[in-house]
Amino acid sequence: METMKVQNVTPNDMPWKIKYDASRCTLCGSCVSACSFRAIEAKVERRRMVFSEGDLPDPQQRFSAVPVIRQVKDVRHYCRGCGICEKVCPNDAIGPLRNPDTRHPIITRCIGGDSIKRGGRKNLESAVRTLDKIRVGRISQMTDPSLDAQRHTFDLLAPFGRILPAKQLPFRVNEQNSLQVESSMPPVHWIYPVIIGDMSIGALSWRMWEAVAMAVAYLNEECGLPVRMCSGEGGVPVRLLKSRYLKYIILQIASGHFGWNRIAKAMPHMVEDPAGVLIKIGQGAKPGDGGLLQAGKVAEHIQAIRGVPRADLLSPPNHQGLYSIEESVQKMFLSFNAAFKFRVPVAIKVAASATSVSVFNNLVRDPYNIVGGFFLDGIDGGTGAAHEVSLDHTGHPIVSKLRDCYLAATAQGRQGQIPLWAAGGLGKTGDLAADAFKMIALGANGVFTGKLVLQMAGCVGNDMGRCNACNTGLCPVGITTQEPPLVHRLDVDRVAQNIVNYFLAMDTEFKKLLAPIGNSSLPVGRSDALVATDQAVADKLQLQYVC
Amino acid sequence: MCRIGAIKSLNYVHPSQALLLMESQQKGHDNSGFAMVMHDLGGIFEGYKHLPTLSMACTDEGLKLAEEMLHTAGFQRVMQWVPEIDPRPGLDIHAMPNYVFETFDYPKSSRQGDQKEKEELLLDMRLKLRKALEHDEQGFVYSFWPDVVTLKEIGDPRDIGTYFRLWAPDDKFTAKVITAQCRQNTNYDIVRYAAHPFFLQGYTALANGENTFYLKNVEFQRQLHRGYIGFESDSQCFLYTLHYVHRELNWPLHYYKHVVTPLPFEDIERREDKSQLLAMRQSLAHLEINGPNTIIGVLPDFTMFTCCDAKKLRPVVVGRTDDTVVISSEVCGINDILPDRDWETDIYPHEREIVAIDNNLEVQRWRQ
Ligand code: SF4
Ligand code: SF4
Fold this sequence. Notes:
- Chain A contains 16 helices and 23 strands.
- By secondary structure, chain A is α/β, with parallel strands linked by helices.
- The model of chain A has no long low-confidence stretch (mean pLDDT 91).
- Chain B is an alpha+beta fold.
- In chain B, a hairpin with a 5-residue loop joins strand 11 (293-298) and strand 12 (304-308).
- The model of chain B has no long low-confidence stretch (mean pLDDT 93).
- Classes of the chains: A alpha/beta, B alpha+beta.
């Protein structure tokens, strides 16, 4: 018998164990070749068979070598539970099983001597979500009738851009007793209240990015929904920069400034202004941490778009030289002014934090009126790559923080002047319309979403540790990878279609939520339309408690 | 549900006409109160048009306190009218001990001051009085403004009319503009202040409807102006928005409609003045109203207007003769006081217009 080596890694130490039924397996090899993580391999097992021939027992044994599929016993090639093997197996012979006894968090650190990195969302299971303790509970009936979701028209748009207090509008009454605009005003675009949130072209495969861009163009041009997508840090393909579709794209600038060289160079050739500029200061899923694109994903076209060699691409946690809110305002002002001649709204994205209200107050009081949006990103949102400890243990939930910011604006009579956009786990249950609607009633002008869009595309990851390998460049469904064979698993048209359909469904659902409260435009800050079934939630958010 | 009505005439009209206008509409409301604001006063007030009149209901202590405060502030009483009441038993009215209509001259220091300053002074004084008399319900201060009187009481409108002897016309207590409404705001507490018409610095507004953006309006208006207080009724928001748009921002009246019920974005896009309309919609997003509504308003220059919600979920009718225009929730009220008018000229305002009546009774329909 071999000596037992307890330190050796076995499937029982891993988060997922492969269940395999040799009797059903035809050894076609599909699963092994489909597993992008190389978590399974073909092996030969030695088998002993005892048999007896003749009338009386006469035990004999025979040894044979049998080819089988086995789980790889290596922390670098552990099974992610993605289930692709199961998907491709024609005989239901293989599949992953969650292992509640996993020692993965310990052994990975012990063996690697490095922090664990992954993509996805926060994996620590939390209690029932705050938004699920809130209902749209103020129903119009009797003298104040509900509207008809099918028949009435609804104005489902949200502002992106700095909104002036009415007294500062440059209006003059002319001889015809009409108001005339005397000088220019900050640009404001009214867009769909759900922005497809910043996922960079490096984090996503080119096909995925293309599918999202296609869906956005289709939603705008064929469905009449002015949906915008944010590029994420890392630039935009030049062809898109020079195309008329640029008007649907919000360009992001983050601390690494990746891709901005090309954007700047493309400016003289732009035929449309971009939809906006989003300065990313922080991200809710990994606050205080910069972007991380591991070398495995820095394919040739990414090197070209970003203007970098193949290496781990780390964005610093801070914008260099950005040490004060005033300075960040200044910075926006400069990029705004210089780059797009006051035609393009510039907004800021920060991670929700215990200090968000102070930051927001400073921006809302800025006398230059230039901050065109406050994008507040809470935990529970997704990320392409992060240290697990940041993902699971840092950050701030979005719901109360968004509400705090709105109430801070309300206390100053400045609600709406800097549009509030919220994100962080919205649509986590698959139902974005409800989450977005509740956030809007709590004071958001709109929401942004990223991870859910991946799920529309076929992402198999979830919050209970399934897959979440977006950082590895080995995404089994071709969404967050730059490996050509994996990328080709993604059907661009189907993904675009899914996204379009989801938005259309969501649009109907928004109306189904507006109609019963009798509103034909978004009820921003209409918290009286909500009730909470939890006293603490009701108190914190200033809602009516019901039970 | 409220029923609202308004009369604007070339001649002085007695409040009995307002009672009559509302009487046949009583099935539409719950007969829980009566309130009216009169502008452009005749009768005993005619000679005092330039001086502010205080309209107040109060206890004896409240009266003393208010008069002391006005005296201290330098206001000098020049005229007083105490309605002769008919306290016959069996009337459904929660009467206050005193109803005060007193006209004052401005404090010496501000007599020569400019108009704006005087107007701010009057508002400050009213707010101070209101606050001082709030304690123990010592009094309700409805208006303190030149050429305007306000009367509000809880009870059956017919009995309130009887109590104040308003059913019998006379030429002592008249006005060219009378707005009236017959219901206490039973959505919330029964408070005298909650009955429309509401008044602020020459502006009057009353409404039949529900404002489902009440909370949004209130939260925004609270920070806009010191006079935007109370909010006992969701219809008060209509008055404050009117005051803000017309007086504070100095925008022409027709923009009021663009603020309370903005055009859909699609329509704005097609307009020549789209940058103005968009900027308005953006900056005053929290003054938008939603829900079924009809609003009647009066401006400091006595222009009267009406408009309704963007889906015309609450109707309103405008009927007229050569010397009188009447606006009412239900046409039966107009039939009672203008029986001989040409009803074919009645206007049923649609959801995208303001109907405005100037002092020559010229009726204008402004398409939004
Ligand atoms: S579940 Fe996914 S990672 Fe695990 S073996 Fe199957 S294909 Fe590989
Ligand atoms: S399927 Fe792809 S995108 Fe989804 S969690 Fe796995 S690696 Fe990430």
